[in-house]
Amino acid sequence: MDICRSPGIRPLINLVDMLLNNQIKSAIKNHALEDVNNECCGVIIVSESGIQAIRCKNTAPIAEQAHRFIIDPTDYLMATCKGQIVAAYHSHSKIDQFSSADLTTSREIPFVMYCIESDTFYENNSSVSNEYVGKDFSLGLFDCFTLAKRYYTDKFGAKIKSYAYGEGWFDKNGSIIEDNYRQEGFSKVIDGPIKDIKLLDKDDCLLFKYSDKFAHPHHIGIYVGSGWMLHHPRNKKSRVDFLSEFYLKRIFSVVRYG
After folding, report:
1. Which pLDDT belongs to residue 170?
2. What whole-number distance in Å separates Cα of residue 90 and Cα of residue 102?
3. β-pairing, 120-124 with 228-231?
4. How many Cβ atoms are within 10 Å of 31's Cβ, its own excluded?
5. Residue 222 in contact with residue 229, Cβ under 8 Å?
6. Which of 156, 141, 170, 155 is nearest to 238 (CA)?
7. Number of alpha carbons in the 13 Å side-chain half-sphere of residue 68
8. Distance of alpha carbon 239 from alpha carbon 133, whole angstroms
9. Which of 109, 147, 197, 216 has the highest Cβ tally under 10 A?
């Protein structure tokens, strides 16, 4: 089973790519094959138990279910009680592309389509540029600050200054992030820790404090929507991670550009 995506201007990393493991693909495929003539639908959730596909009833009129789906709002609500909804899915029997109805329906989360005839998954709603992920860590060159600087420069035209920092900066000048974010055009909107991910807006800047031995935040992430963040962990490649409870309770504050 392949994964395809809607064409874009430049290569993109889709959050859905990280969700469609073999177990989730099989669950969606099995759901679709139970009624090959009509579209199935459901959601993908992330919880402490892992990633799970939750089936939902298609409440579109019976005569339209061969080419249309509407997720049952009660089923959707029940799914929110089981975990964080991070994507929706549905099936097509033969048409291996998103329909006009699929593309014009407003969604706040990524969505997946499985085509039975081609045995292929398709996904839409790309959100993170390939330019930002997969970079090897190098302090001062590729790290959490330089990633954030590039992101906000590219997206908002921010003119963020370069700052001098080296190994052990969090011991020598630990307040550098707090001391300077306001003059760079950011304002604090939330004090951490965060209990409800719905408080976050896409493109919010997340300031983390991983240990109580530090008085100030010492890691930066960017909320890219649907429960995910872009960041560059120390000594690892830059990547997109789901904002699990591990991360949420370590958010020191949230600042917003503009």
Report:
1. 76
2. 10
3. unpaired
4. 19
5. yes
6. 141
7. 11
8. 5
9. 147
> In the structure encoding, which two tokens stand for residue 209, read together?
């404090």
Place of tokens 């080296």: 166
**Strand 128-129 versus strand 12-13 pairing type:** antiparallel
Query: CA 210, CA 165: separation in Å to the nearest integer?
Result: 19
d(CA 170, CA 178): 12
Q: Of 184, 177, 162, 207, which Cα lies nearest the Cα of 257? A: 184
Mean pLDDT split into 10-residue runs, the chain, 258 residues: 43 58 95 97 90 96 93 95 90 81 62 90 66 89 96 95 84 86 97 89 95 90 85 91 85 96
The β-bridge relationship of strands 120-124 and 111-115 is antiparallel
Domains delineated in the chain: 2-126 (3.40.140.10), 131-257 (3.90.1720.10)
